[in-house]
Structures are given as C-alpha cells and as structure tokens.
Amino acid sequence: MRHQKNILVTGGAGFIGSNFVHYMYEHYPQYKILILDALTYAGNVANLPEAYNALRDHPQLEFWYGNILNAQLVNDLTARADMVVHFAAESHVTRSIYDSSEFFRTDVLGTQVLANAVLSNRNRIRRFIHISTSEVYGSAQYPAMDEQHPLMPMSPYAAAKCGADRLVFAYWQTYHIPAVIVRPFNNYGPRQHLEKLVPRFITNAVLGIPMRIHGNGRSARDFVHVQDTCRALDLILHAPQDAVIGETFNIGSGQERDILSIAEDICTRLCPDKTNARTFVGDRPGQVIRHTCNWEKIHRALGWEPQISWEEGLPATIDWYTTHQEWWQAQCWMHEIPIITSEGNKELH
Ligand code: NAD
Fold this sequence. Notes:
Elements: E1 5-10, H1 15-27, E2 31-37, H2 50-54, E3 61-65, H3 71-78, E4 83-86, H4 93-98, H5 101-120, E5 127-131, H6 156-175, E6 179-184, E7 186-188, H7 197-207, E8 211-214, E9 220-221, E10 223-225, H8 226-238, H9 241-244, E11 248-251, E12 257-258, H10 259-270, E13 278-281, H11 296-302, H12 310-323, H13 325-328, E14 338-340, E15 346-348
Parallel strand pairs: 1-2, 1-4, 2-3, 4-5, 5-6, 6-11, 7-10, 8-13
Antiparallel strand pairs: 9-12, 14-15
The structure holds nicotinamide-adenine-dinucleotide.
C-alpha cells in the first residue's frame, strides 16, 4: 500500500500516546505511523494496537525503541515524517517532587532535540503538535482558564513542561517551524498508569485498599476523556495551516471536579462497604488548588467540543480496569510515591 502520509508519534507506548496511535490506526489506514518510545516504566509495547504485537513487521505501524535525546535517531525518523505529534515526557507530578532531573532532560532537552529535527526537515514537515499541559498555568486565577492565563507552574514537572512549551513557541517565532501547542487538562481512560489519580482510585477500590486523599480533598481538576483529546488532535492535524500554526489550544471538559467527589463516584460503583474506603495524607507540596478549562478557542477555530461525559467515561474506564487486571497488577508497587515534606518527614503520596 502506498502511504499517503507518515506521522511520527513520540511517547506512543504511553497512555495518551497509545490511545492516539490506536485512534490514528483505526481512522487513517492509509497513514504510516512511526512510533518512538524509550519504554520507561510508563511505556509498554503491549499498549500498541494488537495488530502490531501480532505482526512486528507491520505495514502500517513501525516501532522504534529509543530515546528522544538521541539526536541522530530523532532526526532520521523526523526526516521520514510529514507530521509529528510529541507526547514523550516524564509525566508524573508527585515523582517530580523527589527527583526532577529526568523531567528536565526528557521534557525540555528532549523537546529541543525534536524541535531541531523539525527545523532541519521543515521542507517536508507540515505539522508539529507539541503536547504541553494545563499544569503550566498553575492554580486558576479566574474560574475557567483560557490560553491567555498566566503561566505559573507549581511543581518541577509543570516547570519542565512550561520550559518545553515556551521553547516550541520560541522556535515558531524565530524559525517559523509549523508548530501547534496543545494544553490538555487531566486525561483519563484506558491504559493510564496507575500512579495517576483515576486509575489509582479504581485499582485501590478493586483491591480493597483505601484511596489516599491529599489535604482536605477539595482541590479540583478538569477531567477530559482521552478519546476527546485524540479527536481534537485529529482536527488540528488536518486543519488548514492558517487556523492552527503558531496557535495554542486548551483541551478539557470545562467541568471542575474535586478529589473527594471523584473518590465518591468510584466508590459508589466499586465499594459496597464504604467504611475505610478513604484515607487522608498531607497536601501535596506545590498542589494546584483549582483548575478548569475554557475550551472556547478550539471550538471557535475547529468546532471541537468534548463528547464523552464523566457519567459515560468513568463507568467505561472502570470496566476497562476491572477487565484488564493483568495489565496493571505489575504496577501496584507504584500505588504510593514517597516524598519528603517541608517539615522533613517522609510521606507516601
Ligand atoms: P505517560 O507517562 O503515560 O507516557 C509517556 C511516554 O513517553 C511513555 O511511553 C514513556 O516510555 C515515553 N518516554 C518517556 N521518556 C522518554 C524519552 N526520553 N524518550 C522517548 N520516550 C520517552 O504520559 P501520558 O499521560 O500519556 O502523557 C503524554 C503527554 O501528555 C506528556 O507530554 C504529558 O506531559 C502530557 N499531558 C498528560 C496529561 C494527562 O492527564 N495524562 C495531561 C496533560 C498533558
């Protein structure tokens, strides 16, 4: 088959990246997907479409086990791509509290390696989507955060992602690379590592381990289903140049949910006996208190809006975790991440 386009996906064996690879594989059989992933603790080739795992020499999927910091490899792959979507990153806020070195190497310097490769191949590359994060905003200074909200990262993870976000913006300003910056709010759905909130609570409930709530549980986030994110990325990839190049887009649900209510929603479905279903620890240092998305810009530009409600997405996600225990059992040792608090105490978060 002659491939109409080649798309390079970094971090395609992780949570959002693998959902995006599945999405593109299903919707665009005429595209070749090149996947680059270092398979850190968060990546897994089993996350790729079954067809790849059954047939390693797959005509539509090509997997490269490698590091985003390897300039030669990144350049070789980018030279073959028409479009690049960059997910690869260290992505867990709590882990960045006790050791952030890898976060800055991968998230900032890795993005620079890729941006340089895009620059070298700008005659061929039509689109470079950089996956940033809403964490770059910090706590909301007004109810629904739009793309103009000040950037006030509050954790080492958020600071590293903020560096990468501004680096891509500067490369667009300076060298006119075809960059688009996307800032997703909290994603949830299948194949998310259980260090993250929703899968951690679901698997806690399945195993009968109390869900650990930070602080008073009233800090709030905006949860968007990963399929909605994939659909937004599809629209951005295929939009006219003028509509997206050099732009930044939020992706979120626009709804705020606090941690206690998420625990409650999961409990209602999974813990018939609610006693001892929750336990409280101190607040996470650098905690973002409030975080809600304003997605009007991407709606105006591309007509995107979230389609999967929490009431639909949460039960589907619970189903996935309850029927894929073999997928997450080996991750259970990461249910708790140690940090040292400002008082010098070790606390499991
Ligand atoms: P994840 O941790 O599940 O996946 C990250 C992937 O990147 C893994 O497969 C890992 O092996 C790979 N990777 C890590 N270091 C690498 C390196 N040096 N070279 C090559 N590959 C490497 O993360 P995720 O939740 O899927 O997030 C994907 C992207 O989306 C990240 O950039 C993250 O900052 C961003 N993001 C995530 C969320 C969320 O809620 N999950 C929200 C907003 C933004």
